[in-house]
Design goal:
Blueprint (H helix, E strand, L loop, with lengths): L8 H12 L10 E5 L13 E11 L3 E11 L6 E10 L2 E8 L2 H4 L5 E10 L8 E3 L14 E8 L4 E6 L10 H4 L18 E4 L19 E2 L3 E5 L7 E7 L2 E8 L2 E5 L4 E4 L4 E10 L3 E2 L4 E17 L2 E4 L15 E5 L1
Length: 334
């Protein structure tokens, strides 16, 4: 679409007035821009554009840091008097660079960049930019997420464009820029398993007294403790056995009087457990030969189980009286 420009002076004055009422814009390609102050709409400043051309990390002999580039254009670009470029991490302002003079802002190509330097080599732009904070030290957790370019025209109007695409890391990663480097070193180790043990009560236990044909009181035998320190997944079985009771003072045909082991009833309660393990009791039962009384399954790693069995002895009807019947209980684990 074309526009016919009026030829007489009155018409030309009217046309200039229309231009003066236009809105100054920052145009496109990565930056989004809007006029920031009403004073921007002044005669001769209706055609100013800014276009993003770079936003990246940089590591080289000239400098290390962040580079922000932009292209300034439009018929009225000569009216721009200053440029400010700021880096943000979210809403946190990191550092600002501001141009020094119009002659350094405007050139034939209209392309510009500013370096936010963390290390200075051969790069020299001291005639172009006032660096807002030369002590800026980037932090790993404050990675730049936005670059903001603000133009100021000769009438005092300001225009802001933002670059919010992700920071380019083609030259160097952000971690490299902040001095965080990484490397991988393979390492191996071993976990050694211990042993499977049982601890029993060793003190003598009095089971009480009963007449032939009757049973002794139910009596605790003391704590039995399984300690599985194998750091594995294998289960275990705890067993118990008892000998026959014999008397040292009463004999039958020259042999000690006895009460058979089968007269003993062993009751194992539910064990108290630690670690990842399921322990199931099996009782009441005869333990005249080795019999399982606690069984561990679903084991993961070290575990323990503690229980105190109770004992009842049914005295045979033909048993001889004696006060010193004795037997031995044996517990084992495998």
């Amino acid at each position: 679409m074309s526009t016919n420009i009026p030829q007489n002076s009155a018409q030309r004055r009217g046309f200039r007035k229309i231009l003066a009422m236009g809105t100054l814009l920052l145009a496109t390609a990565g930056f989004s821009g809007i006029a920031q102050s009403a004073s921007a709409a002044q005669p001769g400043n209706a055609d100013i554009t800014v276009e993003a051309v770079g936003y990246n990390t940089h590591i080289g002999d000239n400098y290390e840091g962040i580079s922000v580039g932009y292209t300034l254009g439009g018929d009225d670009a000569l009216q721009v008097e200053s440029v400010s470029v700021a880096l943000y991490s979210g809403t946190t302002l990191l550092v600002t660079n501001t141009s020094k003079s119009t002659s350094q802002i405007i050139n034939k190509a209209g392309q510009f960049s500013t370096a936010f330097r963390t290390w200075i080599g051969t790069y020299n732009s001291t005639g172009t930019w006032n660096f807002g904070d030369m002590s800026w030290t980037p932090e790993l957790e404050l990675k730049p997420t936005k670059a903001v370019v603000t133009l100021t025209d000769s009438a005092g109007g300001t225009y802001t464009g933002e670059k919010t695409t992700p920071l380019s890391e083609a030259t160097a990663t952000w971690e490299q820029l902040v001095g965080v480097t990484s490397g991988e070193t393979p390492a191996t180790m071993a976990v050694t398993g211990g042993t499977l043990d049982i601890t029993v009560s060793t003190g003598s236990v009095y089971l009480g007294a009963a007449v032939p044909g009757q049973s002794t009181p139910r009596t605790p035998l003391g704590d039995m403790v399984i300690t599985d320190a194998r750091a594995g997944q294998l289960g275990w079985i705890a067993s118990a056995a008892v000998t026959e009771f014999t008397s040292a003072t009463v004999t039958v045909d020259g042999s000690p009087a006895t009460i058979p082991a089968s007269a003993v009833a062993y009751t194992a309660p539910t064990a108290d457990m630690t670690g990842t393990v399921t322990v199931t009791a099996t009782s009441p039962k005869s333990v005249d030969s080795a019999a399982a009384v606690q069984t561990a399954t679903a084991v993961t790693g070290n575990n323990t189980a503690t229980w105190s069995p109770t004992i009842v002895v049914t005295v045979p009807a033909q048993a001889l009286a004696a006060t010193d019947y004795a037997a031995t209980f044996t517990h084992s684990v495998s």
